[in-house]
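> Could you send the Major facilitator superfamily (MFS) profile domain-containing protein prediction when you get a chance?

Sure thing. Input:
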Amino acid sequence: MDISSKRPSYFLLVLIFAQFAGTTLWLSGNAVVGQIESELGVKLGGWLTSSVQLGFIIGTLMNAIFAVPERVLSSRLFLASALLGALANLSVTVIPLNVSTVLLSRFLTGLFLAGIYPIGMKIAADWYGKDLGRAMGYLVGALVLGKAFPYLLKGISFELPWKEFLFCISVISFVGGLLLWTLLPDKSLPSQRNKFSVKALSVLFKVPKLRAAAFGYFGHMWELYTFWTFLPIIWKIYAASHSEYQINIPMATFSIIAIGFLGCWLGGLLSLKFGSGKIALIQLILSAVCCVILPFCIDSSFVLFTILMFIWGVTVVGDSPQFSTLVSRFALPERRGSIITLVTSIGFAITIVSIQLIDFLLSKFPSNLSVFFILCLGPLVGFWASAKQIYKE
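Output:
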């Protein structure tokens, strides 16, 4: 029987909202980092994001090692992760404030996000067949909006204290998890309880198409989160060279992250006609071009610079759902959740390297956009490693 016949009409809408709500936790700390740094009297730099990424990596690895997605119903895992992630996000508001507690709070938030982002993708993969690329486009688009949302709140409410701000974000996350658990059906768990097997997960590196899709995703990840993390810095560097413009940095950051939804949505629609492989590769190369062009636009008009940033915002994440679709498609069905989780974990490990590298380079060259040249290496290597295998998919 076609699985879509058992899928409620509101299925995708609820899943999109839950994914959006859960991922608002991700960059919530970044949106209020200025207030936190003022209270601490120190700069946190790229470590705020890297702590989340490290927690997410450990969480996804634990899920993969213990085959948690194959042992726990997806809706229950998502709800528990949304609740615990919300509490971790709030923990910094009730414990003594210092650098260690802030970074621990962000680490734990990332740890529980491991049960939100990849599990949302697993739910989509379980319930969608040929139109998975379209569903993934909406789903990753929701992820994009969720990560941009804290900057929107910050941009329109400058006076909101950071503790109340984090409380609002945590409530949104929990509500999303609760709605998903309440309204969406679960696919039954495998009849045989899977145990961790290196051999089973080694298929990631043995199946050519799966390996190609994964390496394309890894190249994309080198660029994506570093771009999002340092977007406020890019805008600050540009604004410092153009005193004639009054730029609302949080709103500008929100706009560029949020426009990524368009890349995910359009990419999902176009994938139905042209295939996920072509759409992913085109966006991967376009985002690399933006990396190269950026330093040459420091003296350009606000309109031209904004257009470049919008194009980059669209393409830097628009390839993500299509790479995720390909990974889901080529993964062993009985190991799909763990393989998706493992690929995601490796991808996020890569982001820590690129974030810390750019953070270091900016400490040496604080007003030089040329440091972002290095981000194009990810898309270029990802394209080289994946194009031959996935172009026709």
